[in-house]
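Re-run requested by the PI after the first attempt was lost when the workstation crashed. Everything re-entered from the original request form. Ligand of interest: glutamic acid.
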Amino acid sequence: MKRIVIKIGSSSLVKTGGKINNEFIYTLVSEIAKMIRGGLDVCVVTSGAVASGVGKLGLSEKPKSLDKKQACAAIGQMNLMQAYEQAFDVFDIKCAQILVNHDDFGNRDRTERMTDTFKRLFFYGVVPVVNENDALAVEEIKFGDNDTLSALVTIVTESDLLVLISDIDGLYTANPHSDKTAEFISRVGKIDETIEKMAGTSDSSVGTGGMITKIKAAEIVTGFGKKMLIFNKSGINSLYDVVCGKEEKGTLFEPTERNLSVKKAWIYFCANVKGRIYVDKGAEKAVKERKSLLPVGITGSEGGFSAGDVVELASEDGNVFAKGIVNYSREETGIFNEYSKTPNSKRVVVHADNIALSF
Ligand code: GLU
């Protein structure tokens, strides 16, 4: 293992009443320091901006309106970063703030810039501390929960493990707060409907995501071929030992065998999808056998895609079986399709190297 992303939920970082939990941050950072001394690159995804802003303003609860929440995030983000910087200073480690929105992952150029920034920070031995840019996020560009954000950060930083630190031990067969028969699950191989049903809802009053968003994050991370661990904040002192495999705690989601390249994981999990191309059975078979999509197999399309955009590839009955970067606009693919029965119509509409198949 070379690189790890650690996501910390609001309930671990901010105490009831909205004060930053400096003791917790110090202990977390001391565990991260051990990882860094051991040669790992570490990236932190932090929540807690809104919750801390609520405390700073002396509000009794998290506001409902967008402008108030955004103001809280802008105030609380500074508090948070101060707390991290002070803690990292003790261990002589530098940290850096990166604020992003969902939209930043959707566009290939912007994701590449982000990737370069992360790489450079790791090269300098700096710990990136990432949060959503809540102060500017509006519905269309926001994640809303940092579980999903941390899964995409795991892709762009090409990390081997995502640890979600929360106020729960991990996955139970039912909600352990309301159901006494709930049993703990320490390992999850395949995420299927049974696992999704177990997810229930979170009891945390300060965080945004519940177990559902954690399962969604696990689908992304394990689909990328990496591991994800849900870890209780109460065991923070042993985080290093758990990450190194000396101790077992929490629920570990095992990687699928998919092992996607970063580019294919980006196509499948991050990119903004701009349209859909329908194909016949022959083309579906060819694409599933890792061949490129040629005009001859196209039966229809929808959406206003241009060359370089990511589109879904679907069978005629609408079943999406892959996503890929298209080499031509929708207009052009339509024109090729009309002439596709001619023998020299060999234009590659979506190249095999740019296709990520569904599970
Ligand atoms: N980005 C939000 C914050 O810093 C937290 C989102 C979440 O709880 O997942 O307050």
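Saved to the shared folder this time. The chain has a mean pLDDT of 91.
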